[in-house]
Amino acid sequence: MSFRRKNIKQQPCEVIVGAQCGNAVLRGAHVYVPGVVSASKFMKGGDVVSVYSDIKGKCKKGAKEFDGTKIFLGNGISELSRKEIFSRLPELKGIGVRMTDPVYLSPSFDNVLPSYLFLQNLPSAVVSHVLDPQPGEKILDLCAAPGGKTTHIAALMHDQGEVIALDKISNKVEKIKQNALLLGLNSIRAFCFDGTKALKLDMLKDTDGEPPFLPESFDRILLDAPCSGMGQRPNMACTWTLKEVTSYQPLQRKLFTVAAELLKPGGVLVYSTCTVTLAENEEQVAWALETFPHLQLQHQDPQVGGEGMLGAGLSSEQLKRLQRFDPCVVLSQDSDTGSLRDAGIEDTIWLANKDCIGFFIAKFVKCKST
């Protein structure tokens, strides 16, 4: 959780960063050199500077000033001069501004016990528990990068069994492998492969345990599907178009169809997104139940999020079996850590649900043939 700080005095020396860098700063990060878009003309190393995010991407790289739309992120100390930053790009990759007075108090866990900890949002951690992987099982993480859920699944299995992680972008697959190695997890096998093609159609072709896979090959499958990402927060790059948003539903259904075929009878399929649209969440559940009668919607444990949203034709009981994390109601700006310490466990869960990313989880079980 983060807490807003008031009355931070803005400085005449300004640094402008891109929207993604701004998101990271709000999550507790310092400003790294590649994220710097603009800096005041006479900025020197050691200056107190105010950091702003260019949310519309209008600031030109290397500009000496910027009067466009920008959001104040807080103050920090510049590690380098303006000349050092812009004369030595792109090889510079270290900290450009060390944040000392951010608008939001959100501690950074970057590189804190990297061999033991992997930072995740609350709903992302809940997903792996809902999947409930067991030692010795064969698990598929169909859209796995960067591997937070993959490594969590392997850890919950005590690294006993097999976790297959797929992603179609090669550098993201390398990141999964690096994370598994860093955490000492040997049960993970990561492949650069398109999840929509993960079902083996040629039954005679032997791929030696590599994708594509035969039908009914996995005990449990996680489909953390590509989505519009409207639940991600903080997010300063809200540039979605209607065409982009509507493009995800067909892709999600292709992936779901593959997952349903790859799941063993009696196996568990968990579908999740980090978005809030009805079309990518409850409507997909309704479609899946109609399209795959052998799939049954299940209760989830733990149940931390709220129930599903009306509008997709699901029954009241079915909505209760879904988890929708709702960030629309957040802590007031006057909340402090003391009030959280005094909160009971139920209040703490409620607060966690309200001060997290938007997220959706559905759990299915494949009926055994009679």
What does this structure look like?
This protein is of the alpha/beta class. It folds into 2 domains: 103 residues, Roll (Archaeosine Trna-guanine Transglycosylase, Chain: A, domain 4); 245 residues, Rossmann fold (3-Layer(aba) Sandwich). The chain is 26% helix and 22% strand. The chain has 11 helices and 16 strands. The strands form 3 sheets. Strands 9, 10, 11, 12, 13, 14, 15 and 16 form an 8-stranded mixed sheet that branches. A 6-stranded mixed sheet has the order 3-7-6-5-2-4, with helices on one face. Helix 5 links the parallel strand 10 and strand 11. The longest helix has 15 residues. About 4% of the residues have low confidence.
Pattern of helices and strands: EEHEEEEHEEHEHEHEEHHEHEHEHHE
Q: Residue ranges: pLDDT <50 for 5 or more in a row?
A: 329-341
Principal-axes geometry comes out as elongated
**How many domains, in number, for the residues?**
2
Mean pLDDT: 88
- The CATH architecture of the largest domain can be given as 3-Layer(aba) Sandwich
Assess the beta-strand content as a share of residues. 15-25%
- Please identify which CATH superfamily of the largest domain we are dealing with: Vaccinia Virus protein VP39
- Count of extended strands: 16
Which structural category fits the helices and strands? alpha/beta
Tell me the name of the CATH class of the largest domain: Alpha Beta
Distance between the termini: 48 Å
Radius of gyration: 23 Å
What count of helical segments does DSSP give? 11
Largest sheet: 8 strands, mixed
What name does the CATH topology of the largest domain carry? Rossmann fold
Helical fraction equals 25-40%
